[in-house]
Specification:
mainly beta, four-stranded antiparallel β-sheet, 2 helices, 47 strands, elongated
């Protein structure tokens, strides 16, 4: 740390006390030139075991700490030849009988080696695990070792023989060493880390130097499955993988471009769900928007204090704040991000029965859009090409659908459909001419309806679906082809449905009918017109996601840990990847899931010259 100003500065900023309190620090080996390629393991009696390299003598060394003293074996392995250099890239593991295992590289012969001790590191058995061709050997860099439930050894490492990169794996589980190539695509195999769970499932995380990607490989006893986990810039160096108590893996890694250390956790699906706000009963009425740089912005309601709150994600960090707190505000909210990356939020003020609007330009500003009686529930907001907001919402006093927009000078408000009790679950979109379109629920007739402003500025109304009680939780999006698309809930059949208009005709179809599914639906259309929907599975208490590709709906469970998925909101990244904000009813938390890593801000430091 003392020799790395950058690391010291990072630690001082993130945990100032860490470098000040050295009461738990101890020197295990003070000889000059020792400590490179160190690896640590702790056994069941809390004895600490360390393998490391002695640069001065080219020796693999070992130390253990019993809580009072350090025992050091200064020479686990040393090649008897004159060109001695053994013990680089060491990795250590300890079994439940306190036997110690070390994998490492012999630089003299460029071989992968292995050492085992049955007596606490005093005596060692040495084996060669893998060796390259005599003309161009280079085997054993970035070695990592793990033990399975039978205390068999598993090792991941890089084979660079003949100048070709290969991620390799070796095991002695059959009694003899068996070696296989896991990945030889590009320059794969840097910074390998291996882990094994209680089911003896093996996972290796590693870096592809050629592509700059974080990759991982998995095996359950058969072949290997190789996948790229992250590929945004130079990402994946110095990776490490481990399994949690539920046998699910977590991976830490370094992003070279941003200089940020990341951690990602696999929750049983292909998604990485993150808790954002856990300060009580928060996360109801969520609304999600992504900026042009794919940064997520979420507005939501906190039942603790009855406040409107706002969260923003940058990298692995989330910041949250209270936007409005006078009275009960934010039970219905809708967020958008303008071209300058500034959030705009429409929300319902339940105390005063008003529709309100907040925008941020360094500080929050507020405006009352409509205060005529009780208005503003089921609000939906969109920004037009000029960055001006348009709103659809419900007038609870007159049971009507209303519409408002900002014309550059003042708020323009209009009553739309007043035929019965109409306007709940409204959702608004605009086309490239800034003409508004609204989907909503007709509670009197139990229908899904659609309103739009014609080219001649006349409001027209259509019944989209009237088969049973349909139209709750409507969500509207305009495709790139100008085609309106709507996801909604069929309460009669308890299904998620989808409607699209083409050639002036509405067509509808069932997306998911497995149990009670489809409440809190949220729809987005990607850059080729394919619809994506997030929704709540009431039967199982799960957050689900559906996408139609090639005319076929593909359905995934995004999060199933507890009762999760209500109040969900979906948005697509620039590349069409989904992100979802949602409520965890079990933990009373706001959560976020995405199929893409949240970007990090890059800070540039410029030199400053001060003149007297």
């Amino acid at each position: 740390v003392e020799k790395s100003p950058e690391l010291k500065d990072l630690l001082m900023r993130t945990n100032p006390g860490l470098l000040e309190d050295r009461s738990e620090m101890t020197t295990s080996d003070a000889q000059y030139g020792v400590g490179r390629y160190s690896s640590i393991a702790v056994d069941e009696t809390n004895v600490v075991h360390i393998s490391y390299h002695d640069d001065q003598n080219g020796v693999l060394r070992y130390a253990n700490w019993d809580g009072a003293t350090w025992y050091i074996n200064p020479q686990v392995d040393r090649d008897p030849g004159t060109e001695t250099d053994v013990g680089s890239w060491s990795s250590i593991a300890v079994d439940d009988s306190e036997r110690v295992y070390i994998s490492y590289m012999s630089e003299k012969y460029d071989n992968l080696k292995y050492a085992r001790s049955n007596d606490g590191g005093v005596n060692w058995e040495i084996e060669t695990v893998d060796e390259g061709p005599e003309s161009s050997p280079h085997v054993g860099s970035f070695t990592s070792i793990a033990l399975d439930s039978n205390n068999r050894v598993h090792i991941s490492y890089l084979d660079f023989s003949y100048g070709e990169y290969k991620l390799k794996y070796a095991t002695n589980k059959t009694g003899a060493w068996n070696r296989v190539t896991v990945d030889n695509d590009g320059e794969a195999g840097w910074d390998t880390s291996i882990a094994i769970n209680s089911k003896n499932e093996i996972r290796i995380s590693y870096y592809d130097e050629g592509e700059g990607n974080l990759k991982h490989a998995t095996s359950s006893g058969g072949g290997w499955s190789v996948k790229t986990l992250y590929h945004e810039g130079e990402v994946g160096r110095f990776t490490s993988v481990a399994y949690d108590k539920n046998d699910l893996p977590g991976i830490s890694f370094y992003h070279v471009d941003t200089g940020v250390l990341y951690y990602t956790h696999y929750d049983g699906s292909s998604w990485d769900a993150t808790g954002i706000d856990t300060s009580g009963n928060v996360g109801l009425a969520t609304s999600l928007a992504l900026s042009s740089g794919d940064f997520p912005y979420i507005s939501y309601f906190s039942d603790v204090g009855d406040n409107l709150k706002y969260a923003r994600g940058v990298g692995s960090m989330w910041s949250t704040e209270v936007v409005a707190s006078q009275g009960t505000v934010g039970q219905y909210s809708s967020i958008q991000v303008d071209a300058n990356g500034r959030p705009r939020i429409a929300y319902y003020d339940a105390t005063n029965g008003d529709l309100k609007y907040a925008w941020w330009d360094g500080v929050w500003h507020f405006s009352t859009v409509d205060s005529a009686d009780d208005v503003g529930q089921f609000v939906s907001m969109v920004l037009d090409t000029f960055g001006r907001p348009h709103f659809s919402y419900y007038d609870a006093t007159d049971e009507e659908l209303k519409y408002a927009h900002w014309d550059g000078y003042s708020w323009i408000r209009k009553w739309l459909d007043d035929d019965g009790d109409v306007g709940k679950y409204s959702s608004i979109a605009v086309d490239n001419l800034n003409k508004p379109y609204i989907a909503y629920y007709d509670e009197t007739n139990d229908d899904l309806k659609y309103a739009y402003l014609s080219p001649t500025d006349v409001w027209l109304y259509e019944v989209v679906d009237s088969a049973g009680d349909v139209g709750q939780f409507a969500s509207l999006a305009m495709s790139v082809f100008g085609q309106p698309q709507i996801s909604y809930y069929d309460e009669t059949n308890e299904d998620l449905k989808f409607a699209a208009k083409s050639g002036g005709i509405w067509s509808t179809q069932i997306v998911d009918s497995a149990g009670v599914v489809g409440e809190f639906s949220s729809l987005a259309s990607d850059n080729i017109g394919d619809p994506h929907i997030s929704y709540y599975d009431y039967t199982n208490g799960d957050l689900k996601y559906a996408v139609r590709q090639g005319g076929v709906w593909n359905i995934e469970v995004v999060d199933s840990f507890g009762d999760v998925g209500s109040y969900c909101s979906l948005a697509l990244s620039v590349s069409g990847q989904p992100g979802i904000s949602y409520y965890d009813a079990t933990s009373l938390d706001l959560k976020f899931a995405s199929s893409f890593p949240i970007p990090s801000l890059v800070t540039n430091y410029l030199p400053v010259i001060m003149k007297d």
